[in-house]
Amino acid sequence: MNVKRLTQLLTCGLLLIAAGSVNAETANWIWAPQHSKDAVPRTSCFFRKTINVRGSQRVILQAAADDAYDLWINGDRVASGQSWQQMRTIDISRHIVAGRNVIAVQVTNTTGPTAALAVRLQFTDQNGRTVDVVSDGTWLASTRIIPQWQSTQYNDSQWSAVQVYGPRGTTAPWLAEGAIPVPSVDDPTTTTVSTPIAPKEEPRFQIMPGFAIQEVISAEKTGSLLAMAFNEFGSIVASQEGGPLMIFSDENKDGVVDTGRVYCDEVKNVQGILPLNGDVYAIGEGPQGTAMYHLKDEDQDGQLSISETLIKFTGPLGEHGAHQMALGPDGLIYLTVGNHTQMAGQISETSPHRNYYEGDLVKRFEDPGGHAVGVKAPGGMILRTDVDGSFVEVVAGGLRNAFDLSFNRDGELFTYDSDMEWDEGLVWHLPPRVLQVIPGAEFGWRSGWAKWPSFYIDSLPATLETKAASPTGMVFYDHQKYPPRYQDRLFACDWSNGRITTLQFITDRAGYRASQEDFLEGKQFNATDIDVGPDGWLYISTGGRGTDGGIYRIVWKGDEPAGQLKDDETGIVAAVRQPQPHSAWGRQHIAEIQADMGNTWDAQVQGVAIAEKNPSQFRVRALELMQLYGPTPSIEFLLKLSNDPDADVRMKTLKLLSLRNESEAADRIADMLSDASPKVRRSAAEALAYKDAKIPLSLIEPILTSTDRREAWAGRRLLERQPVDEWFGEILSTKDAHLFNMGAVAAMIADPTHDRAVKICNRASELLDTYLTDQDFKDIMRVIQVAIFRGEMKNSELGRLGEQIAREFPAGDHVMNRELIQTLAFLQEGSITDRYITHLDSNIPNSERLFLAMQMTFIPTGWSREEKLKLIGHLEKGLEIDGGEGLRGYVEMSTKQFVKHLDPEEKLLLLTVGDVWPNATLAALFELPEERPAFIIDTLCGVDRKLQGREGAVIERLQMGIVAILAESDNDEMMAYLREVYRDYPERRASVAMGLAQQPTGENFALLLDSLSILKGEFASAVLAKLRNAPATSTNPEHIRQLIILADQLQDEGGINAIRLLEKWTGEFPASNTAPIADRVVAWQDWFAENHPEMPEAKPVDLAKGNWNLDELVDYLTDDEFQGGDHANGKQVFKKAQCAACHRVGSFGEAVGPDLTEVARRFQKRQILESVLFPSHVISDQYAARKVLTMDGKVLVGLVTRTTDGDVILTGQDGAKRTIMANEIDEIASSPTSVMPEGLLDQLTAEEIADLMTFLGAAPEAKVAGQAKTSR
């Protein structure tokens, strides 16, 4: 950047950020000292600053950099930018913790010889004082990247102090606006720029050639945005996350919105915005809770107020709640609703989607992580209503969490549904899907593992399954400013991947096929919504989950596309060719054209619609204009056009006929069931179904048996509206398997009776003896499943059907086998278990094997012992699949399900293989009898010994289960074993303490007292409850202190047990029994300080004190990705950190303090780290420091050792020894402070601390590359 002054003069006003509300000190420009100010290489520099924040509710940070920066708070990336001219304002409150916080910034010099960073931050401390933190000489810098440098764990003691260039705004070359001398216009050397300056183009994006992205409104002005839409006058209505509805307008009339203000603060956190007829419809949180609100500016003051509440929703507005809206070509409002929300009011009986059901044959396994547990059909929905909210219909269901929806030029509705990434690797995982939403559509989302595959006959397939995405806003581009290949394309936001994708749709019979490509990808670009502006550019809002907001637009930089609407094209031509006609500004412009045309409008718009020489696109548009703006087409007009040779015109005419109540309209639509166009036939069936028109099966059959899924679907929905008794007999007697399948499903959806279900299953049995195509076979299997579920049939009623289905397994097709096994599981068909196992043993994909094995767990009988063990082995093998977070939980549930079917001997056998099949052994524990023989206890004890040193969540749960059973055994030998485990395996002490607490006496009591310093949460509460009933007590001040600390930590979640125990042990009552727990804890802390002044205070440690956070260090050392430390280097770190001056490991070090050779066998990782970080928190009596007062008034502190002559040898914090003669000593007193100094780890990196813990035996040795991992 060597032309900064010129850039200053040319910078667009759009990007000149007004001074924020933060009245902070001036930030300084800083950089690493390794570089000269005017000779900075094109490289990155890394900065850190540690701050302490106490009691602040709001923390604001501003940053600017030359050239680009990324900023982290406590390891979380919160912002990025590319501007030195203005400081970007970020609310970082949600990332700040009480105590120590780290600001980390990476700045990259991409152009020019200069680079710098300026940061300022402001918050209010606990005393109400405003605290300013600015970039200055206290910041640290490094020129090389180090792992975890952004985290609070990282030690920056080796970093250099920055060099300070000077205050921002007055330091060249980064001069603020107004600090640059501007020549007079009379100066002949001045060059003036009269053309408007476009918004700054951002370099951080990858975008399709010919396009550019520009920041229109900065994050400082918008805040985090959730949704946006253009209103009638080209202003952007946008919603702030957690905040009000905003409006951004073009105040300087340069064609770009630039000024924002609050538009409505009565509704907040708005996720859906629809400007309509001068008003705004909004879905958000308001006085009536989560609802769709109609907002109006009735007093014309420029502010919207709630006029009425149209639709209420259950529960809070969340990420799976009610979302966006779109105006349909029928004039109705369509909206998306996620699977965690339902409508609070009545659903209209006219809903196209009705009679939904779950469809499970065996017990459902819900999501192990708890997502959507218990949520029933229809799950996520597409709803529609009118502008008054007088009715609400369900258009489609079976979605997960589609955020937005949009209509294409043909008037067809599309949405983009998200996936459940935790299901990855499992056959029921549904990827993100682009869906064509036809009336009555069912897309098969169900909770847990019950999701329907897309091939089900009672579910519709996706138009396109896409790669991983988090779909948010979407819009069809119906403008002309982009090249033709991008027109009538869908543009969709992908929030988590920072992408905008574009999808091209090609008509495919009654539906579409689609392809997708990445259009734009940006760094830190969390796109939430997208819309087309009056200028023809795409506009994108960003934000969500506290990320940066802002509004961007995408412009075309290439040659002007042909076919654009010209200025001299006015009147009806302009109306018919109006870009984005369903947008608020598009509708407004059409209304203005109509007003200008006056009486000529009617004849001209009708003329465009009638003239066959016009392109179908314009004729269809003219028909739409007639319906929405007038003149309403007459029935005669529509009947004539319904015979037009153009299929698109017939299609639009049919949709308009469907809005009419005349009998001629219904008759003509019925005739169109035989139209030559699949789309027209599909639409005719949809229209007749909505009207509940009575149509004979003979007219429906050609559509019903279409090989096009969407056409057949519409035919089936129409058949469902006919009285079932009138056509069911024909369905049962047909030899056409496809017709039978479609009709049977229609019968069981429309009017499911047990008698019909039996007849359907009997007919299916007959058809299974005939030749069936693969597709017909899959469909007939689903027909049987639907009949069983909807007809509430029992497996005993299925006759020979079970034998027939068993005969087909295994098929040569994985999909067929899935359907076969689900039905066989319901039938509990155990006669072919040998074939089950043989197929599982064969070379099939792991995901297919796991699904089959899971279903087989519902078959209780027929298995040999060897087959049972093989099935369990295949379930355990499923854990090897590279899948989502839910996979392990589903395997555990399946294993537990099957273990129930084992006989007692087999369950006992599983107890012996816990080291090989921990899931199975854990499941077997739940099946043990209450009276457990001694050999079971001995067996479990042996398994526990084998598991020692193993890691993993299942191992930990299995060990906890074994401990619980051993503790309940009332066996002295087992209690002795638990005491042995407690002493030898520190990491297990919390759970073992719960076991020992079952007998809180004798040796157990002593260990329970020892455990007081390590117990947390539920473990602590449970142990304390048992100790209250123990006969023994303790008056040891350290035990009393730990009880008070536990009371402080537990508070209302079990703190009362600690309080009661304190009262029992001490006989003291420093606070009233009616006082709140928090007050009683404070009273006990004061009591302890008064009665034991020599002891450390009875308060939890400040985890953020010093350079390292205890919790974060423990997480680092126990993380699954932690690879271990270097033992040899750990020995050097032991010396570097001054540990060797007082402690010994083996023969290395001094023996002044405790010997650490076996420290890892005596203490947990957390305890070891805590003792180093907070040495005065727990002090051994043997090594407690003493204050030595000398006769000459000196106070010396250290470890005291007396000689035989009465002299004292005092060892200081540095390990140095000093002899004090007996006649020089006045007094020796206790000290609450450890002789061990604090901050010993402050000079170490995270890697060095890991090496130190490895040297002490508390962390594993790093594995050599290529070494096999220990099985989990």
UniProtKB/TrEMBL annotation:
<dbReference type="InterPro" id="IPR009056">
    <property type="entry name" value="Cyt_c-like_dom"/>
</dbReference>
<keyword id="KW-0408">Iron</keyword>
<dbReference type="Pfam" id="PF00034">
    <property type="entry name" value="Cytochrom_C"/>
</dbReference>
<keyword id="KW-0349">Heme</keyword>
<dbReference type="Pfam" id="PF23500">
    <property type="entry name" value="DUF7133"/>
</dbReference>
<keyword id="KW-0479">Metal-binding</keyword>
<dbReference type="Pfam" id="PF13646">
    <property type="entry name" value="HEAT_2"/>
</dbReference>
<dbReference type="InterPro" id="IPR011989">
    <property type="entry name" value="ARM-like"/>
</dbReference>
<dbReference type="InterPro" id="IPR016024">
    <property type="entry name" value="ARM-type_fold"/>
</dbReference>
<protein>
    <submittedName>
        <fullName>Cytochrome c</fullName>
    </submittedName>
</protein>
<dbReference type="GO" id="GO:0046872">
    <property type="term" value="F:metal ion binding"/>
</dbReference>
<dbReference type="InterPro" id="IPR011041">
    <property type="entry name" value="Quinoprot_gluc/sorb_DH_b-prop"/>
</dbReference>
<keyword id="KW-0732">Signal</keyword>
<feature type="signal peptide">
    <location>
        <begin position="1"/>
        <end position="24"/>
    </location>
</feature>
<dbReference type="GO" id="GO:0020037">
    <property type="term" value="F:heme binding"/>
</dbReference>
<dbReference type="InterPro" id="IPR008979">
    <property type="entry name" value="Galactose-bd-like_sf"/>
</dbReference>
<dbReference type="InterPro" id="IPR055557">
    <property type="entry name" value="DUF7133"/>
</dbReference>
<feature type="domain" description="Cytochrome c">
    <location>
        <begin position="1125"/>
        <end position="1260"/>
    </location>
</feature>
<dbReference type="InterPro" id="IPR036909">
    <property type="entry name" value="Cyt_c-like_dom_sf"/>
</dbReference>
<dbReference type="InterPro" id="IPR013427">
    <property type="entry name" value="Haem-bd_dom_put"/>
</dbReference>
<dbReference type="InterPro" id="IPR011042">
    <property type="entry name" value="6-blade_b-propeller_TolB-like"/>
</dbReference>
<dbReference type="GO" id="GO:0009055">
    <property type="term" value="F:electron transfer activity"/>
</dbReference>
